[in-house]
Protein: DNA-binding protein
Amino acid sequence: MTAKHHDPAAPPDLESLIERIQRDFPGMSTQFQVAARYLMDFPAEVPIASMRQIAIQAGVQPATLVRLAQSLGYDGWNALKGVFIQSLRRTPKRYAEQARHVIRSKNPREVLSIAVATQTGNLRLLEELNRDRLAPAVSLLSKSRHVHVAGFRASFGPAYTMHYLYRLFRASVSMLRGDAGSLEMELRSMHKDDVVVIVGFAPYSNESLRVVQAARQAGAHVIALCDSIVSPIAHEADCILLFPTESTSFFPSSAAAVALVEILVERLLAKAGKHAVEGIKIAEDQLHQTGAYLNIK
Structure:
């Protein structure tokens, strides 16, 4: 019997695995597509469930999962599952668990040093994660008829920053807020040739997924700013910009997300050119004239 050899082209990590599946998906058989879509939609289930359980939940035979793994270059299901197990270390811990760790911290100086180092690492990763992703996102936004920005719960801050800064030199930018249960009404404003920018990190909100689904139904493009290429809001996105959320506190950090937004808006301004600069000047003059800023002499 000839032994099966591990294909060196087998994706070594979860992100590259998802990229491979997305690339090969159109040419897969129907059963492979069903199984692959389940793996992409529910990556957290793969490390903790048996192959039989996953097959039942996905609606395929266990043998389909084995053949899918082999078609992707792995020896079998266990090798494919191992990639998902490795990704567990990136899964955000529950807030209460992290909070217990925080209150056990002793040395304030040491805590500050570690926290600063962690945030520095987050910011440094932005270049590596988005080196080839930023330009397509800028191009798509620059060509759009209208830009809708959304972010819910903890993701609202970076999303609002995007909306506020972009509005300083572009009028056709609006925020999807969903105040007082009005999200469905706001989603009706999406049209073809619009771009929806959705910001989100784990744990992901139901509203963010509804925004992406509504955008697709309207024929609008989607740019996802998120913490993972396998996040629910990234699956249907035309462009994905990534930010890390590592934190020494009890809550995932949004510092890198805000920095990414600032970089994105900076590039949008540069592409827009002198006309955008004039728009900023007008907006700034109006803010001063209306008394929005303190007049300190």
User: Anything to note?
Assistant: Residues 108-130 form the longest helix (23 residues). The chain has a mean pLDDT of 86. Residues 125-289 form a domain with the Rossmann fold fold (CATH 3.40.50.10490). Residues 221 and 292 are 35 Å apart (CA to CA).
